[in-house]
Amino acid sequence: MSLRAATGDDLDAIMALEEASFPTDAWSRSAMSAELASPHGRYLVDVEDGRVVGYGGVRAVSGAADADIQTLALDPSHRGTGRGRALLRALTAEARARGARELFLEVRDDNPVAQNLYASEGFVEIARRPRYYQPDDVDAIIMQLNLRDEGGTDR
């Protein structure tokens, strides 16, 4: 596993994973391109044998009290191997380094594997957005991690 900062050159590989992972509500190419270029975020890619097998991003405006995990996805053949956890921990560390005291994310109600990963890293459910994910009518679970705790997720 090799994590590195994502660049515009990774856009094709990221979009392929985005569309495979989120077939009904994938981000647009232009939205993802803007995210990669934004100074307010940090996107990482997980590379194996020269191929992007995962990516994730956090929006963390430097000095702001809160940050948001924007997205995280892995090639299906690499799920369950600890790579998603490594990406999540790296994004959490980035949010903490930028001064965030709270980290938020949204996860689909029909994705218990992701929910369990986030809960195992200390995220707790704080709210729901009914029928948020369209066109599937799936609720979004809003989760929060307190970065002020000394334990955090940097284990």
List keywords for this structure.
7 strands; Aminopeptidase; 4 helices; globular; alpha+beta
Description:
With 155 residues, this protein is an alpha+beta fold. The protein has a single domain (2-146), classed as 3-Layer(aba) Sandwich (Aminopeptidase). Helices cover 28% and strands 36% of the residues. It has helices at residues 11-21, 29-37, 83-97, 112-120, and strands at residues 2-5, 41-48, 51-59, 66-74, 102-108, 124-133, 138-146. The protein has a 7-stranded mixed sheet, sandwiched between helices. The protein starts with a strand and ends in a 9-residue tail after the last strand.
- As a whole number of angstroms, the C-alpha radius of gyration is 15 Å
Number of domains: 1
- Span between termini: 17 Å
The percent of residues in helical segments reads: 25-40%
Rough outline: globular
So, CATH architecture?
Answer: 3-Layer(aba) Sandwich
Task: Give the CATH superfamily.
Answer: Gcn5-related N-acetyltransferase (GNAT)
Which blocks of ≥5 consecutive residues have pLDDT under 50?
Answer: none
Binned strand content: 35-45%
CATH class: Alpha Beta
Order of neighbouring strands in the sheet with most strands: 1-2-3-4-5-7-6
Instruction: Note the total helix count.
Output: 4
Order of helices and strands, N to C? EHHEEEHEHEE
Describe the main β-sheet briefly. Answer: 7 strands, mixed
Please tell me the overall pLDDT. Answer: 93
**What class would the helix/strand composition place it in?**
alpha+beta
The count of DSSP E runs of length 2 or more, i.e. the number of strands, is 7
